[in-house]
Amino acid sequence: MAWSGAAPRLAWLLGYFCTTLLLWAPLFIQAPGFPGLESLAAPLLIPFVMLGICVVASAMEADTTAQQQRLVAIESELQASLAETSRRSQLLDAVLETVDVGVTAVDAAGRTILMNSRQRANHALAGLLHASDTDGDALIFGLDQLTPVSLDQRPSQRAMRGETFSDVVIWVGTGERQRALAVCARPMRENGQFTGSVLAYSDVTEMVNALNAREDFVSSVSHELRTPLTSIIGYLDLVLDDEASSRLLPRLHSALQVAQRNAERLLLLVADLLTTASGTMDLHRTETDVAELVRAALDSAGTRAGTAGVDLGCDCEENLRALVDPARFSQVLDNLLSNAIKYSPDGGKVTVRSRQEGGNLVLEVQDAGIGMSEADQRDVFTKFFRTGQVKKAAIPGVGLGLVITKSIVEAHGGQISFNSVLGVGTTFCVEVPAYTAL
Fold first, then answer.
1. d(CA 343, CA 102)
2. Cα 391 from Cα 373, distance rounded (Å)
3. Within 10 A of 353 (CB to CB), how many other CB atoms are there?
4. Which of 98, 172, 262, 416 is the most buried (most CB within 10 A)?
């Protein structure tokens, strides 16, 4: 009864009293009269032992029962965890097989621990058909689609070194089946120790081909426009330089000059399109009075500023000389001033500042226009990018001015930065070395 746990206290009492009665019964039966106290007390040790056994049995049974209950609870938790793990595993497998992205995970030793079917197809495209194939056998090429990527620069090897990277574009395979993949990698760590890496491969072939087609289109159209524009400018120069042009009405002479300036500006835009398509830029540096370039740019922008209701201000040092390409640097000034005026549709003031700080030439163009949001600021130097506010306001442009400006500044060994607040205005700052070795 004590071990069963049904009635432990009753078992203690019965065990004690029943044992006592069993020990006393012979004393009453054999000895005439009432037994003495000494005779009754002599066997009482055994009932106490029996009581102790009952108590110990009850305690052991309670402890065993508690352990069994804990084991049952733990087993239930393990079963629930196993079921949840199985459910999550199935969900992960379903997600990995659903997404149009190749995913693979490797441990610290480089062994593949997870790979979805999309990535297995990418591996097959790269020529890795068997588990024994090594990464060195893979058909992985650079952006030109011909030059093999060195083994140490391949995404899998970089990931094994614990590197984190995003949007590394490689070409996989050969011939018509060759595909462009953008690769991202994130390391896995446990207690600060590198335990492996997860890589994701996105197929960006159509996007890359579209970008290449756009670049080819821009380059082709620019080449086609350059020849007739050069001819137009040449004939306008002949007309304006001819002695007979002096007998033209002033209105006609002025119109021809306007046509010449706009044709030259259009030719410069065509040259910029070719520059962005080719990615190269030639500089012809000479010692230049930058203050004079600033004054010329302000004079040129005066008409546009007056039409837009924008006041132009100048806070520039005199005799500010630097070794720059005057035509290209004028282009930087024109682009920044044009943007400042164009993006100030409600008027306001545009201020140009130029100075020399140490060995650097610093140029700032500040406006009080529409400004840019934080999201737009991330793409401000992206080709053909135009902000949402500009599109809503239907402000004309192609989204190349700042890209070209940045290229010119960086070709001079400098850098361009900006600070913009939506609805408050924008300040662009150009900093280039005043003198550098040619």
1. 43
2. 14
3. 17
4. 172
- Cα-Cα-Cα-Cα torsion 158, 208, 396, 424, nearest 10 degrees, comes to -20
pLDDT in tens, 58-108: 777 777 778 888 888 888 899 888 888 888 888 877 877 878 888 989 888
Three-point CA angle 130, 135, 140, nearest 5°: 110
Residue 10 tokens, joined = 């009753």
The number of CA neighbours under 13 Å toward the Cβ of 311 is 4
DSSP annotation of 148 reads B
pLDDT in tens, 336-378: 998 899 888 888 899 999 999 888 999 999 999 888 888 888 8
Which amino acid is residue 225, in one-letter code? L
Q: Which residues pair with 354 in a beta bridge?
A: 316, 363
Q: Please, are residues 126 and 178 in contact by the beta-carbon 8 Å criterion?
A: no
Would you list the DSSP string of 357-405?
ETTEEEEEEE--S----HHHHTTTTSTT---HHHHHTT----S-HHHHH
Q: What is the largest CA-CA distance in the chain?
A: 168
Q: How many CB atoms lie within 10 A of CB 135?
A: 16
Q: Which conformational region is residue 423 in: left (phi greater than 0), alpha (psi within -120 to 50 degrees), or beta?
A: left
